[in-house]
Amino acid sequence: MNWNQLFEKLKEINTKDRVYRDEPMKKHTNFRLGGPAKLLVIPETEERLIETITTLREARAPMLLIGNGTNLLIRDGGFSGVVVKMNHQGMKTVTVEGTKMIVEAGALLSTVSKRAQQAGLSGLEFAGGIPGSLGGAVYMNAGAYGGEMKDVVTSVRILNQSGEVATFAREELSFGYRTSRFHQMGDIVLSVTMELIEMDPSEILMTMKELDFKRTSKQPLDKPSAGSTFKRPEGDYAGRLIDAAGLRGLRYRGARVSPKHCGFVILDGDGCAKDVEVLIGMIQKTVFDQFGVFLEREVIILGDEKGDGDA
Ligand SMILES: Cc1cc2nc3c(=O)[nH]c(=O)nc-3n(C[C@H](O)[C@H](O)[C@H](O)COP(=O)(O)OP(=O)(O)OC[C@H]3O[C@@H](n4cnc5c(N)ncnc54)[C@H](O)[C@@H]3O)c2cc1C
User: Fold this and answer.
1) How many whole angstroms separate alpha carbon 195 and alpha carbon 204?
2) Does the pTM exceed 0.90?
3) Probe residue for ligand 1, chosen from 134, 140, 160, 229 as the CB with the greatest number of ligand atoms within 8 Å
């Protein structure tokens, strides 16, 4: 199947306004960076997602799955394949059953936290300000202010590499610090079941407002970024080490170490993904040379270098 045929086929499966050609990835990432994807599709339902994935696998088309694009740096060459996007533009149904929430993977974590608060369910307060989708949050075992997805997730429905739908319990998800079994397995999270605790909605709201204040006062939320660029090294903080190395505000072309929070690399003015990647390397080298600590990236870098996909 060539790109034209695949484009037409994907439009048959999904409605045609959900399939894009030569789509700039900067429109789909919080960093506002990334060259074009040959095709991009945003399936609206689980059924259409599964049919889309099956079609792509049969056509052996290179595929990249993204959620809300908030932990990603897509390179300037884009992606010479099909990006499948799973965020709130697609599968986002939220169901509350007593203290249980069953949520489709595309729903935004901020929306899910708000729904939990309104339903008088505590446990997701930490997640109110994390801008990702639920699927991305499970993939990353996202966390903040002492909470992590692993504390609330009880099971996950997935689509595996063989096209089968299966359910895994929390114990099978290999959750760790910003990691889960999905980093190895390549399964797609379809929906997530979470168990929460009953609490007065106004009490939950108060905690969420406090955490929101902490976040907005400390993080450079007015600039494009992918959140914390690096994982926390054992016994320390990436931001503290970067600051101590004298890198606060360091700029490489359009990329900059945030003067507000050194753990964030931001886009400040005109720049490209390469600028961010180079600056990340400069930070890693300087911190390693000065303190002997290697800062592991939390941000996921994907896609083609400029020129790679032009053939
Ligand atoms: C301003 C800002 C603040 C942030 N604060 C925090 C924070 O406090 N704590 C924190 O942990 N993170 C934080 N992040 C990072 C980010 O929001 C989280 O990592 C989030 O969980 C990523 O979700 P996403 O939907 O955007 O995933 P994406 O960035 O789109 O994708 C990340 C990875 O998840 C995979 N993925 C996405 N959806 C699925 C799915 N349905 N099934 C399988 N794999 C999937 C993708 O393939 C990719 O490998 C922040 C980011 C920003 C920009």
Assistant:
1) 16
2) yes
3) 140
